[in-house]
Amino acid sequence: MPKSKSHKGLLKRIKITKSGKIRFRRPHSRHIKSNKTGEQVRGYRRPRYARAGDMSRFGKLLFRPLRSQEKSVADAAGTAEASE
């Protein structure tokens, strides 16, 4: 059985956080900002987190378990309710 290798092109474009979420930067944010509104440009500065629909595909490319932003929020809400 051959060794499972992570997708290097994907790894160069994302950061996997300690909790397993995927953080990335939005496309179209590098240059040619003169035809974009200020609101768009400011929005490009914020890092984005991968949503649930992409996580299964990313997990297959990276050969590791991952968590979506929705799953993390739901788990945090569940632990907050359990502690009350």
Question: Could you describe the 3D structure shown?
Answer:
By secondary structure, the chain is mainly alpha-helical. The chain has one domain (8-83). It has helices spanning 8-11, 38-45, 52-62, 69-83; strands spanning 14-16, 22-24, 48-49. Strands 1-2-3 form a 3-stranded antiparallel sheet, with no helix packed on it. A hairpin with a 5-residue loop joins strand 1 (14-16) and strand 2 (22-24). It starts with 7 loop residues before the first helix and ends with a helix.
Summary keywords:
three-stranded antiparallel beta sheet, flat, mainly alpha, 84 residues
Sketch the topology as an H/E string, one letter per element.
Answer: HEEHEHH
Strand order of the largest sheet: 1-2-3
Percent of sequence in beta strands: 5-15%
How many domains, as an integer?
A: 1
- Biggest pleated-sheet summary: 3 strands, antiparallel
For the residues shown, what is the average pLDDT? 88
Judged by helices, strands and strand pairing, the structural class is: mainly alpha
Low-pLDDT regions: none
Helix content: 40-55%
Based on CA atoms alone, the radius of gyration comes out at: 16 Å
Number of strands: 3
- From the N-terminal CA to the C-terminal CA, the straight-line distance is 49 Å
Report the principal-axis shape.
flat
* Count of helical stretches: 4
Quick description:
The protein is mainly alpha-helical and 84 residues long. The chain has helices at 8-11, 38-45, 52-62, 69-83, and strands at residues 14-16, 22-24, 48-49.
Itemize the secondary structure elements and their pairings.
Blueprint: H1 8-11, E1 14-16, E2 22-24, H2 38-45, E3 48-49, H3 52-62, H4 69-83
